[in-house]
Amino acid sequence: MCGRFALDYPGAVLSDWYQTVKIPDLYKRYNIAPGTDILIIRETSKVREGSMVRWGFVPRWAKDSNNLPMLNNVRAEKIASKPIFKSAFMQQRCIIPASGFFEWKARHNDNHKQPFYISTGDGCPVSFAGIWETTRINGITIESCAIITTECNDLMGPIHDRMPVILPPETFTAWLNPSPLPREILKYFLKPFVSKNMTAWPVSTSINKSTNQGEQLIQPIS
């Protein structure tokens, strides 16, 4: 799963990395939680661009803005078969940029969990596979998204049994293509990222409080 992540790259760097025509104004965020607006990269028939949308997928049929589901993650194994996600998976795929993400490992000596920060080892942006949706509730348009998760790789295994789907750069064009693609091709993308290209370290439990911010949240602790 993925419940928190960080993004501290400048907009110009992200625009160049993803080859977008525009990126909204950004500021460094080290504790991004579900329910907040996050950056997604998506492509229409005309342009590839960055947009800010709600992290927490809102189904097209939702009617009540005061009781929206918190569908921040969707399992790769079920995304093609569940009606709530099927349409978005076929034609409304996106990339959710990050610097890294957090996961919590149960500690054997007590009831607490130790947070870890996980990122790629090359310093490049982490590209989560996602889906997005547009919903109108009481005349108000809500754009939302969810991160797709898959089974863990060898690096993540000791920490958690799930991880976000991370896309390598060579897959960006095909993944963002707004045209329908065969399920067999789409499922090719939904696999664990290569362990040797990732790194992880323990961080402070200050990340547990969603209002905490600052670069210290991703610094390693002994």
From TrEMBL:
<dbReference type="GO" id="GO:0006508">
    <property type="term" value="P:proteolysis"/>
</dbReference>
<keyword id="KW-0456">Lyase</keyword>
<dbReference type="Pfam" id="PF02586">
    <property type="entry name" value="SRAP"/>
</dbReference>
<protein>
    <recommendedName>
        <fullName>Abasic site processing protein</fullName>
        <ecNumber>3.4.-.-</ecNumber>
    </recommendedName>
</protein>
<dbReference type="GO" id="GO:0008233">
    <property type="term" value="F:peptidase activity"/>
</dbReference>
<dbReference type="GO" id="GO:0016829">
    <property type="term" value="F:lyase activity"/>
</dbReference>
<dbReference type="GO" id="GO:0106300">
    <property type="term" value="P:protein-DNA covalent cross-linking repair"/>
</dbReference>
<keyword id="KW-0227">DNA damage</keyword>
<keyword id="KW-0190">Covalent protein-DNA linkage</keyword>
<dbReference type="InterPro" id="IPR036590">
    <property type="entry name" value="SRAP-like"/>
</dbReference>
<keyword id="KW-0645">Protease</keyword>
<comment type="similarity">
    <text>Belongs to the SOS response-associated peptidase family.</text>
</comment>
<keyword id="KW-0378">Hydrolase</keyword>
<dbReference type="InterPro" id="IPR003738">
    <property type="entry name" value="SRAP"/>
</dbReference>
<dbReference type="GO" id="GO:0003697">
    <property type="term" value="F:single-stranded DNA binding"/>
</dbReference>
<keyword id="KW-0238">DNA-binding</keyword>
